[in-house]
Fold:
Amino acid sequence: MDDIAANSDLSPQQLERRRKPDWIRVKAPTSKGYAETRKLMRDLKLNTVCEEAACPNIGECWTKKHATVMILGDVCTRACAFCNVKTGMPRMVDASEPQHTADAAAALGLEHIVITSVDRDDLPDGGAGQFVKVIEALRRTAPDTTIEILTPDFRGKMKAAIAAIVEAGPDVFNHNLETVPRLYPTIRPGARYYNSLRLLEEVKDRNPSIFTKSGIMLGLGEERLEVHQVMDDMRSADIDFLTMGQYLQPTPKHAKVVDFVKPQQFDALGAIARAKGFLQVASSPLTRSSYHAGDDFAEMRAAREAKLAKAATTPAKIPGRKAR
Structure:
């Protein structure tokens, strides 16, 4: 993360050699479970961020029949420099999508499901109503499945969108900051860093029991101290769960990888994040927002319960009284 100048002078051939270091190479998906998950998604006419964003973990996750459903279509109204999802004018919202999503969760036997979406700046509510309908369908059809949503920023419509979604009651509300503030103009030009922070803070203000989660990509040219500052900003917004993963350039048209961050550096940053008070931290080159999300949710919930139990048994300090 700290050798930006050196990396910017790399030739295309050098960048190509650095594109796939040993620690981020994955095998092509070939398992029976992968094929079955893919068929189910096609049969139900559901989009997945696993496919649209070219996630490197798709083989592992789909083999285990874990898929992240992407609602509101497969065309985004934004054009972020890191994202592989198509950009343009989206089609009409699919009224059958909420129930199909719930049917997929039931068919896969999911204990935990992650629902994300494209940005829909064309819709009056930014797509919040579809998130609500999906949550409601899941509660009816798969009542034992815990629900994690990964939303856009609902630009210009945030308060009403958050009010509606929080009322629907997801278990985890995720919105990714993606990168450090300095890189927003080039990496996430349609968004604003502090608006995204405020969104997650608004969720906590409305319902403190909902877990909040956010993530950033590393390798885009961020400095270490900038990452530390993002952690502090997240904790100030009372965010429970931080994910950090390696940025991978989807196509030559997207933002270039400035640095491949080594696993040891991810471990070190993860340790710092835990010391800052996050309930849960996932930090590795292959970490993505929904990677191992179910296991991470269970650990985060246990961590909160342990924290509350400890607070309940700790004697309150009396102001002005010296300890003996």
